[in-house]
Recover the amino acids of this structure.
């Protein structure tokens, strides 16, 4: 089953083959900065111009980490259930 939120490889922008590792890292950092700006813009939209953006971000981040922890626990439980915990 494919995830509809993930672009197929042929539609995903690629890194130019001539890029150095440093340029690839810089490109990745720029992408992360852009993602952060999208998150902050979405939070600002939710809380309005006079809302506390730092508090909204802390709340959002805490919720994301709770979801992450639940996902990790579920994955561990599935791993154990399927017998993956008996490695020697």
């Amino acid at each position: 089953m494919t995830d509809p939120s993930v672009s197929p490889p042929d539609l995903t922008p690629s890194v130019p083959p001539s890029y150095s590792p440093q340029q690839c890292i810089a490109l990745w950092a720029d992408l992360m900065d852009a993602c952060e700006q999208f998150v902050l813009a979405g939070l600002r939209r939710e809380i309005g111009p006079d809302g506390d953006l730092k508090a909204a971000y802390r709340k959002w981040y805490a919720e994301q980490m709770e979801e992450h922890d639940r996902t990790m626990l579920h994955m561990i439980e599935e791993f154990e259930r399927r017998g993956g915990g008996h490695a020697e």
The CA atoms of residues 72 and 86 lie 18 Å apart. The first helix runs from residue 21 to 47. The mean pLDDT is 91. The chain has one domain: 18-86.
